[in-house]
Design a protein that fits this description.
This protein has 611 residues and is an alpha/beta fold. The chain is built from twelve helices and 24 strands. Strand 1 and strand 2 form a beta hairpin.
Length: 611
């Protein structure tokens, strides 16, 4: 991962931790007076000069921050656009308690926020630091917040940052947020608004200490033993908006059990995430009208609820790996549902017809639902981008979709044919049909897929005809099919960069026109035992796999393949002639290249390679 001479820099605030692992320890110096002034001016005056009547106050502020970059940025952002008298009041307040400088400064900035911005800030600090901003926005908007405006305001105050689409904040800022929540009730955990410490949450739930003050609980069970909760563990937390019970260790299940069931859940819940939920049903008195996201992956649930539910705010449902799930309730009222994840629900046989009317559905994932028998004939959502039915091994039907779908995955299904109407999918990018053993030849209308990039019919042993793919295709996988001939006219396929024809045992020699595929970088003909001639590919080829073919010689023109880095010729039993020009290739000079030749006269082979 790191090459010779690399230097690894680790930043830490605990010197003893570094003593045993670091070669050298350097203390980061505070900014000097000039640097501190520049950063402060940038934060408070946006790079402009300090007005004369603010000069003295600015010097006070810089002196208070003592050259610490975070202090300077937070204080400068807070004082931005405030009146002179507000500067005076703020600095006086900070200077009264100098021993708690950073906390005081951050607290002043927090106190100046409106109630909504305070709630957004505390939710991010306690639950959503490091999460994608779009994900956080969806949840917090569901709580009635104007998240975009709130996050913008927090960023202006240097309380949060946005990096690569994720919400981040300085550790000290987060610690300040934790302290604010602790101060809400120093002695009674159940009267704090947000709970995130596994130890605290464990105590609250096992002793039924929760109250109406609790708005959010995130419980990581990875560091605790199995716990059994009372059926009334959440009964008094009727203002709970956010709840997540999970195990942060990959592959490990939650350890929270409800031997006597669960009496109730808060109707104020916007976010309900419980990995390994231990019951067959949700509480019958639980109303989901405020719920934005429901995640019960790896749970014991068999049926979510009975009867109708108002699901107007629900945007995402994740029931993946619910192996006991047999029925999906009516979702016709979930008008805003965007994502439905049912992958690995192995006992699910039928998906309700109501999903065909979900107008905002973007992603429907049913992969490896091995008992699934049928789907609605058509899925009408014009927003649908991805439909994944991979591994639905007994599903025979192809559901119609609107022209807006981009990704279709029917790998390992039992479908026998694609309809001609597939040509209407003008935005389709990827069509995956790998190992559909009953699938016949693709319809000619596939040539109308003007956005297609990937076509995969590898392992479809009943496909005998080279598909009429359009010219924009870049990746074509036909491995293991019964295709016999490569089309002579290939000029329109000039964009193909990867072509896999491996184990096409009926395939004959490729036409000379394959040279026209100027962008072809990877060609795999391994296992094509009827291939007797070296393919006439262009000199742009980078990877060439000819294992198990009956090629007898390599043409001398191979010396012109200046981009070739992979050449495989294992088990070419009829191979006779290796041209001297092959020594010109980079593949012969690279220590990372792979040249594998099974040549009958090994002494002659080594002599030709001068090895």
């Amino acid at each position: 991962m790191f090459g010779p001479g690399s230097r690894i820099l680790v930043t830490f605030r605990d010197r003893p931790v570094l003593k045993n692992v670091a070669d050298e320890i350097y203390e980061v110096k505070e900014l000097n007076c000039s640097e501190a002034c520049q950063l402060f001016i940038l934060s408070v005056f946006k790079g402009n000069h300090i007005p004369k009547d603010y000069m003295g106050l600015s010097i006070r502020a810089v002196n208070y921050a003592k050259g610490k970059p975070l202090d300077l940025k937070v204080l400068g952002s807070f004082l931005f656009d405030l009146r002179k008298e507000d500067w005076e009041n703020a600095l006086n307040k900070l200077e009264r308690n100098p021993q708690l400088k950073i906390y005081n400064m951050l607290k002043v900035s927090f106190d100046a926020l409106g109630d909504e911005e305070k709630n957004i800030f505390l939710d991010i600090a306690c639950f959503f630091k490091g999460k994608q901003i779009d994900y956080v926005k969806r949840i917090l908007d569901g709580c009635g917040f104007s998240t975009n405006i709130g996050v913008f305001f927090l960023a202006e105050r240097c309380l949060v940052t946005i990096s690569n689409g994720k919400l981040e904040m300085h550790d000290l800022v987060q610690e300040m947020a934790f302290e604010i929540v602790r101060q809400e009730s120093i002695k009674e955990l159940g009267k704090r608004s947000r709970l995130w410490s596994p130890r605290d949450v464990n105590q609250i739930l096992t002793k039924n200490l929760g109250t109406e003050k609790v708005e959010g609980i995130f419980f990581d069970t990875s560091k605790i033993k199995e716990i059994k909760l009372s059926s009334k563990a959440f009964a008094r937390m009727y203002n709970l908006r956010l709840r997540k019970i999970y195990n942060s260790e990959v592959g490990k299940n939650c350890k929270v059990y409800l031997p006597n069931g669960l009496k109730s859940l808060s109707d104020e819940l916007r976010y309900l995430h419980w990995d390994g939920y231990p019951l067959k049903y949700l509480p019958s008195n639980f109303h989901l009208e405020n719920l934005v996201e429901l995640n019960l992956s790896h749970s014991k649930v068999r049926e979510l609820w009975k009867g109708d539910q108002n699901l107007v705010n629900l945007t995402e449902v994740n029931l993946s790996n619910c192996e006991h799930l047999t029925t999906i309730p009516d979702l016709s009222k979930a008008k805003n549902l965007e994502r439905l994840n049912l992958q690995f629900c192995t006992t699910l046989k039928v998906v309700p017809s109501s999903i065909q009317f979900l107008e905002k559905l973007v992603d429907l994932d049913l992969r490896s639902c091995t008992s699934l028998l049928s789907l609605p004939r058509i899925i009408k959502s014009k927003y649908l981008k991805a439909l994944n039915l991979s591994g639905c091994s007994i599903l025979k039907m192809y559901p119609e979709t609107t022209e807006h779908v981009m990704y279709l995955n029917f790998n390992e299904t039992a479908i026998k044919e694609l309809p001609q109407s597939i040509g209407h999918l003008s935005r389709l990018v990827a069509l995956n049909l790998r190992d559909c053993k009953q699938l016949g030849n693709l319809p000619d209308s596939i040539c109308l897929l003007k956005s297609i990039v990937i076509v995969d019919v590898s392992g479809c042993s009943n496909v005998t005809k080279f598909p009429s793919i359009p010219g924009n295709t870049r990746y074509l996988y036909l491995s293991g099919t019964a295709v016999e001939e490569f089309p002579f006219s290939v000029g329109h396929l000039w964009r193909i960069s990867s072509l896999d024809l491996s184990n096409c045992r009926r395939l004959k020699n490729l036409p000379s026109t394959i040279y026209e595929l100027a962008y072809l970088e990877k060609l795999n003909l391994s296992g094509c035992s009827n291939i007797t001639e070296f393919p006439n590919v262009s000199c742009n080829i980078k990877e060439l796999y000819l294992d198990g073919t009956t090629i007898e010689e390599i043409p001398s023109s191979i010396g012109c393949f200046y981009k070739l880095v992979e050449l495989h010729l294992r088990n070419c039993t009829k191979f006779k002639i290796l041209p001297g020009s092959i020594c010109k290739l980079n593949v012969c000079k690279s220590s990372t290249s792979q040249v594998a030749l099974n040549f009958r006269d090994s002494r002659e082979f080594w002599r030709q390679w001068n090895l």
